Structure formats: C-alpha cells, structure tokens
Amino acid sequence: MLEIREINEKIQRESTFIDLLNIEIGKTIIGQKQMIERLLIALLANGHVLLEGVPGLAKTLAIKTLASSIKAKYSRIQFTPDLLPADLIGTMIYNQKKEEFTLKTGPVFANFILADEINRAPAKVQSALLEAMQERQVTIGDKTMKLEEPFLVLATENPLEQEGTYPLPEAQVDRFMMKVLINYPTREEESQIMRLNTTGSFPEINQVIEPADIIRSRSIVNEVYLDEKIERYILDIIFATRNPEDYKLAKLTSFINYGASPRGTIYLAQAAKALAFVKRRGYVIPEDIRSICNDVLRHRIGLTYEAEAENITTDDILNEILNSVEVP
Q1: Residues 90 and 138: beta-carbon distance below 8 Å
Q2: How confident is the model at residue 164 (pLDDT cuts 50, 70, 90)?
Q3: Which of 76, 99, 148, 300 qualifies as a FRET site for 328, CA 20 to 30 Å off?
C-alpha cells in the first residue's frame, strides 16, 4: 500500500499541468468536455483519436488550441478523393541546378495532425497516414525518417451515409485508440459560443507546457497502478465481445460478427491508466474502465446483418456487456 501511496503523491505533483491545459482549452472551446478529455488521454497514452460528428463542432479548433498550449507543431490535412500519398508524407523533387533529388517533407511531419474527413480519401492515402501512425516513421524513396514525439493524429470522419466517402477498413480503424462520437452543444453552451465568436476578439492561448513534459508524463502514466482484479475485469469485457454465451449473454451471439482484438485489451488498459492520471489518481478504478470502454471498443466489434437490420449498434452491445459483467 505504501507503493500505491507514493505513486499517488507523485501523480498529484506531476499532473498539475492538466488543470492548466484545461484552462487554456476552455478559453476557446465551450463544452465538449468529453472530446477534450479523450484528446488528453490519447496524448498521454500515445494513441490516436477518430472523431465522428457533423461539421462545425470545434474539432479543428480543439486540436489547434491544444497544440498552441503545448507549443507543438500543428498541421491540418484536408482529405479529398484526388489526394495522393505524396501530398501527405512528401516526395523527392529533382533539383536541376544541383542535378540531384532533394527531399520535400509533407504535412505529416508535425506533432499534432488533424486528418480532416479521412474517409473522403482513397485507401492508398489512408494507409500512408495509418502507417505513419503505427510505425511513427515515414519512408520516402530510400530514406526512412522518424516522426517527432509527441505525435497525435486526430482524424475526423463524416457519418458514413454521406456520398463520396470511402469507409475505413476494419484493420485500419483498429489502429485508432478511440473512436469518439461528438454531439451538438447544449442551448446554454451554444449561446456562449455565439457570444465568443461575434465579439471580434478571440482569446489568446498561452503555452503552459513543453512537448518534453508530455513525453515525461507518459512514463509516469505507465506507473499508474492496475490491480489484478481490474485486469481480469478488462479481460472479461473483451472476452464477452468474442464469446458472449460464456457470460450469460447468448442473445448477443447472433449480433456479433467478430469481437475486440488484443489491441483493444491493450488500449483499454492504457487509456484507463491515462484517465486515472487526468483525474490525478495513481490507481485505476472500475469506473475508469466503464467510462472509457465504449470509446475504446465501439470500432472494434463487427456487427452481423441481423444487428444492422434491427438497428442494434456496437454501443448497445457494449452497454449490455457492461451491465452484465461482474464489476470488481
């Protein structure tokens, strides 16, 4: 118990910048607390976020503000059907004067990438970005270059029923730590947004931490205590998505085509640790798992045609599992 107390005290000291970041982000982003919290979790757990929601919900502004408050490089890539992988990662350009090829790097060489409407670009472009996300490196010609840390991709996605989109393949979607659904602000929040954007003076964002502070915090996040009971709880949730009948959930069998991958297990544990850090705690509690579960697993479960016919979503399945699996 002494060790947990020490970790707790250490995290209390080291996580003070979370409050500072929230203050800076709160200057320009009204509401959307869940989206901001998920961004911080992904940043601390070295993951990436896929956001789904209608346009105009401050997705671009959120990541731009976060980058400014950390003094990190930010780039926005608008994905379109005619985009090429070279537009993303860069290419070799022939220099006639020097009679040699020179390297021109693309917008992926930044700390924070906003991949806007990722499902508007064809598969080759999507896979170029996803390779950079997974390997943290880019190969152009015969040169392989490491990407700077921290490296966070926030990809936004149009709801799939819109025309002219290329749905992300399951294997690629699986590389995102979280898929976050964002909704409209409340009436009160929208009133504040209207005032903020019609006064002509936009708040200035101050840099409160350095990128090096984020990298240091990641090693501290790894120290967050994860009890064996919590580990078993995570495994029960994951295995219930694969074999629901083993958890008295046989009624879900006909709705699930495939369950969460081992990457889901890893990300659920990492995200829970990062959430505990954000909440300034040195240990994970079951509520952390329940809070983060849908965002980490909703894109890792395949639905059958029967589920789609009955309008059953992965969130419905996960809520059923969370209500049935025994909480430690």
Answers
A1: yes
A2: low
A3: 300
